[in-house]
Specification:
By secondary structure, this protein is of the alpha/beta class. The protein contains four helices and four strands; from the N terminus they run αβαβαβαβ.
């Protein structure tokens, strides 16, 4: 875990903020993803949204945008969005605040 992200997560937990993880990983990777999150200290969340196997030609950005729409439809406000790819942050709806981490290893359009 990036230390600052873990601290932010812990503070959000302390304040009673609902945490949503939205990832472009396939649904088939759910168990491994949950294990990895818990091993790094992210042990509680409102929802973990993974990309369904039948996503068709939907891009990662489109998938994440649709997932954010679903979060809002459940009555939540997007206060903060953190990601290492622009596809994590772009598209409506956007969070009130967004943080883009640098990622020198790969780029997802």
């Amino acid at each position: 875990a990036i230390p600052g992200t873990l601290r932010l997560y812990q503070e959000a937990q302390r304040l009673g903020v609902s945490i949503f993880f939205i990832t472009g990983r396939d649904e088939a990777q759910r168990d491994a993803t949950e294990r990895n999150l818990r091993a790094q200290g992210f042990d509680h969340w409102q929802d973990l949204v993974l990309r369904p196997a039948n996503h068709g030609s939907q891009t990662i950005g489109q998938f994440k945008q649709a997932a954010r729409i679903q979060v809002i439809a459940k009555g939540y406000t997007l206060a903060l969005n953190v990601g290492d790819q622009w596809s994590d942050l772009k598209g409506k709806p956007e969070a009130e605040f967004s943080v883009k981490y640098p990622d020198p290893y790969y780029f997802i359009p």
